[in-house]
Design a protein that fits this description.
about 325 residues, alpha+beta, five-stranded antiparallel β-sheet, 11 helices
């Protein structure tokens, strides 16, 4: 491996400084950049060419008001952040990862794990202190400890085993898992992992975990189910004692807009129909919600639910029948 000479290191540092200046302001003139960098305008032009070679779209314009400008590129090049910008970015991502907007939470956590790779140790305690001072109110996702999210995200990224306490009946048991993916629903964070003690895939609510830790023992990734689909099916049906499937005579997009993703799985069956998988503590409860959607539907499973439909239909017809008014005493 070759070691860069002092001149090469000096050039690299100067080019990074130039990039930082271009990110700070819309337009710089050549003399302004030369004065800031302590070099000649000719050296500035060479350094600009180096940035272009690395994929940064640096535009140059002539005349009054002209100069060098960093423009948007086809691909997203690396950003150069100072300490304050890195801290602000990390804190914002931590808030986004635990926030109420599910679609933003996933992306925020992915970006945070990338930033975590390069964030200097000296800045970590400042990020933790600042994130602890941020609160929110109102509805949205169940709050979780950002450090727990980061621990699990690192374990997924680095393919190392994780351990945590998790409720099982009336007691909390220690679980050993191979973490695969973190999944955000509209209400909660979940971890899809291979449970080493139960020898099967499981989904876990992150807000129920205690004493979360990542181990140094690495594992070879297994063939895994689709994380989002598995977790959604677990949340919407498998956790309940009763499950039911329906064929709904309405487009899948229409039904998805009526049912929270955590309450049912909706699969298209052509352009005008869809299949709905849901669960509940009683089949009557599930059936009531299907009726309230306002669409024609058929019961696919379980068979006994069809008989229950007839019983409830007769009861509703009886309740809606014309009756004599009750005399007032």
């Amino acid at each position: 491996m070759e070691v860069a000479s002092g001149d090469e290191r000096g050039t690299t540092e100067r080019v990074l400084t130039l990039l930082g200046l271009l990110q700070q302001r819309q337009i710089w003139t050549g003399p302004e950049l030369a004065d800031r960098l302590g070099v000649t305008p000719r050296t500035v032009r060479r350094d600009v060419e180096r940035l272009r070679t690395l994929g940064y779209p640096v535009h140059a314009s002539q005349g009054v008001g002209g100069g060098y400008q960093l423009g948007p590129g086809q691909d997203l090049p690396p950003l150069l952040l100072d300490d304050e910008e890195a801290i602000a970015t990390a804190v914002s991502l931590l808030v986004g990862a635990g926030g109420a907007v599910a679609s933003a939470g996933d992306a925020a956590l992915r970006a945070l794990t990338k930033l975590d790779r390069v964030l200097p140790t000296r800045l970590r305690h400042e990020v933790r202190a600042l994130s602890g001072s941020v609160e929110s109110f109102g509805g949205g996702r169940t709050p979780v400890d950002p450090d727990v999210l980061m621990t699990l995200a690192r374990a997924c990224r680095d393919e190392v085993e994780a351990g945590f306490g998790y409720p099982s009946g009336s007691e909390v048991r220690r679980r050993r898992v191979e973490p695969y993916r973190l999944v955000a629903s509209d209400r909660r964070w979940y971890l899809l992992a291979y449970d080493l003690d139960r020898d099967d895939w499981r989904s876990f609510r992150v807000d129920r975990m205690t004493d979360v830790s990542a181990r140094t023992w690495r594992f070879r990734p297994r063939a895994a189910p689709d994380a989002a689909t598995y977790v959604q099916e677990s949340v919407a049906s498998r956790v309940y004692p009763h499950q039911a499937r329906f064929l709904v005579h309405a487009p899948a997009d229409t039904v998805r807009a009526q049912i929270p993703a955590s309450a049912a799985v909706v699969r298209p069956r052509g352009s005008e129909r869809c299949e709905v998988l849901s669960g509940g503590r009683s089949l009557d409860f599930v059936l009531m919600h299907m009726v309230l959607l306002g669409h024609d539907f058929e019961v696919l499973d379980p068979p006994e639910l069809r008989a229950r439909c007839r019983v409830l239909a007769e009861r509703l017809l009886s309740a809606g029948a014309t009756t004599s008014p009750v005399p007032r005493g």
